[in-house]
Amino acid sequence: MRKADLVTAISEKTGVPKVDVLVTLETLFKEVKGALSSGENVYIRGFGSFIIKERKRKVGRHIKKNIAIEIPAHFVPAFKPAKTFVEEVKGNVNNLPKDESTTL
User: The pTM is what?
Assistant: First the structure.
């Protein structure tokens, strides 16, 4: 599902015009990015948490030059789903019909 599909689905279910839904979603995304950029985590009960994780300093390798380079410690955004969210997805995915082409 893409953002346009999400906007359409929300608009159809709520009766709110697509433009208003799009503006609301864009504002939500902007606020989450802003909070994470300022070092604040975002917690949405029943859905999950947008958190900041620290990646430790490590040594990598420049493949073309075959030399070791240091990758400094840095922060990355992450999403941790709520327990109820995970359980709902597990319950619904297990009920989907099995496709032989996707099995290992």
Answer: 0.73
